[in-house]
Amino acid sequence: NIELICPATISKINYRPDSSPELELGDGRILSAKVLVAADGAQSRVRQTVGLGVTSWDYQQHALVIYIDTDYEQKDITWQRFVASGPQAFLPLTGHYGSIVWYNSPDEVNRLKALSFDDLKDELVAAFPACLGKVNAVLGTASFPLTRRHAQSYVKQGVVLVGDAAHTINPLAGQGVNIGLLDAAALAEVLLEASQQGLNIGDINVLKRYEKMRRTENLKMMTVMDVFYNVFSNDILPVKFLRNLGLGLAERILPAKHKVMRGAMGLEGKLPKLARGVHII
Ligand SMILES: Cc1cc2nc3c(=O)[nH]c(=O)nc-3n(C[C@H](O)[C@H](O)[C@H](O)COP(=O)(O)OP(=O)(O)OC[C@H]3O[C@@H](n4cnc5c(N)ncnc54)[C@H](O)[C@@H]3O)c2cc1C
To answer: How many angstroms is it from 252 CA to the middle of ligand 1?
Structure first.
């Protein structure tokens, strides 16, 4: 019962709280629905059009993403290490390819980005651990400012925000997709339940149930990421000492380690039914 319209462009979003939201597509078609789910990313046009405000600030780090060709085939292993200038991560792609995420100060990212690919490769090899294997070439780069954004409300009559449209978090622990998927699971649960109860699924009171399930949980995850960011991105001796002590203890105390791992896998906190393996249909 799903019609996929892709590719498509939106020429206009018509929103009035007292009528169903409407999208005018580039090809002239007009779509109308009881509820418009804004899954259109951090710069969400839907969010801006309907006037849902965000609280945001920039981290003092940018992320430089570098697409590389390596000497040997990459396995399904990703790793990340923390240095004072910011995390350094490696994400395997298929075959001999991989993606580096190099967090650094905005000035340093701009300097690195301005280098030729050959010079950048040399700096990369010098800065990253040897377990990367031989890097044959840098094939492409992109950089991103890191911004924390949180919509002050996720819902309006007939409109609901999910994923990065509702929140962007520091990506240092790779939690962005996880919390977006949990949003989707919670929204599916709420809409299905409302539909079974014969309620209007676009009604603000229905959509607020979803917001209640997700906003505080997302805020908790954003706050934990900020603690990691602050603890790992400084070289003050007592902070370093406490950080290393904490990590050492977490490694040795297995229940604590498992709890952290379950949290990172999106298995802790108040979870929607789908995330607990409970069928909702
Ligand atoms: C440097 C960096 C590293 C990251 N690393 C990780 C990681 O390791 N693990 C992790 O889980 N997360 C990571 N994230 C976060 C992750 O990328 C996001 O949380 C995730 O992509 C959000 O998914 P989304 O579907 O909500 O939004 P998006 O991925 O932004 O998708 C929104 C989609 O909507 C489309 N769209 C927008 N407007 C329109 C329009 N008007 N018409 C048609 N289409 C439109 C866009 O083209 C896009 O395809 C990282 C982010 C950054 C910046």
So the answer is: 35
Phi, psi of 119 (to 5 degrees): -65, -40
Atom 7 in ligand 1: which residue has the minimum CA distance?
174
Which one of 1.20.1510.10, 3.50.50.60, 3.40.50.720, 3.40.50.300 gives the CATH number of domain 34-53+152-276?
A: 3.50.50.60
| Residue ID of nearest Cα to ligand 1 atom 28 | 41
Instruction: Sort strands 159-161 and 36-38 into parallel, antiparallel or unpaired.
Output: parallel
- Fold annotation for 56-147: D-Amino Acid Oxidase; Chain A, domain 2 (3.30.9)
Q: What is the pLDDT of residue 238?
A: 85
Question: What distance in angstroms lies between residue 124's CA and the mean position of ligand 1's atoms?
Answer: 26
Query: Is residue 86 helix, strand or coil?
Result: strand
Residue nearest (by alpha carbon) to ligand 1 atom 12: 176
* Centroid of ligand 1 to alpha carbon of 164 (angstroms): 6
114-160, pLDDT tens digit by residue?
999 999 999 999 999 887 778 999 999 999 999 999 999 999 999 99
Take residue 173 and report the two structure tokens written for it: 């622990």
